[in-house]
Amino acid sequence: MTDDDIEQGAARADFSRFLAACYYEPGPEFAEEKLFDSMAAAGSLVDPDLASGARRLGEAFAAAGLEELLVDYTRLFLGPVDAQARPYGSVWLGPDKLTMQDSTMAVLALYDEGGFEIAEDFRELPDHVAAELEFLYLLLFRERQARRSGDAGALAKAAALRRRLLGEHLGRWVGPFTEAARSSAQTAFYRELAALTGRFVRIESERSRAG
Question: Degrees (nearest 5) of the Cα angle 96, 102, 104?
């Protein structure tokens, strides 16, 4: 395992974490903390399309007003009645488009197996897109640490959990979710976010299938 491989592993983990942050309520901290610059830097080590997508995302955020983004965020993900792109795995994996179904319990069990605890101040359901992206970040981070330390057992465990997350959960529902978000968004920011999310998860899913 080369230093470049380890560096790319860190970038993949960071990109997942930054992407998850974009699914929280938009606020000035997105710009203040240079979220999109950090995302573009990480993306440049993984895939050129991710880097360019992150730059477009930052430009779209800068061009929009926060009130406009909040309205679109609410309409897409929160409602008040019928959200256009509900960000929960069970909505897209089950036949009835309902939350808290068998798939929710299954991803909770996967979190438990991976020692992933959802923060107490996280007010969303456990199969929210941000939660699953943060779990992916944790697994990618653990794989990088295991590679650095030469811990084959820890590496195998984290990689197996990552394959299950992508093969049974996030990788199965992110396509229809991001298509709904992209087609329904009224701001360029959320159209770009949907496209970038779909691209990143496809890259990770293909990597998992390849071994």
Answer: 100
Residue 88's domain comprises 3-209
In this prediction the pTM is 0.95
CATH number at residue 200: 1.10.3480.10
Q: In a structure prediction context, what are the per-residue pLDDT tens digits for the chain, which is 211 residues long? A: 566 677 898 999 999 999 999 999 999 999 999 999 999 999 999 999 999 999 999 999 999 999 999 999 999 999 766 899 999 999 999 888 888 899 999 999 999 999 998 888 888 899 999 999 999 999 999 999 999 999 999 999 999 999 999 999 999 999 999 999 999 999 999 999 999 999 999 999 999 988 6
CA distances from 205 to 166, 176, 210 (A): 6, 15, 9
How many independent structural domains does the chain possess? 1
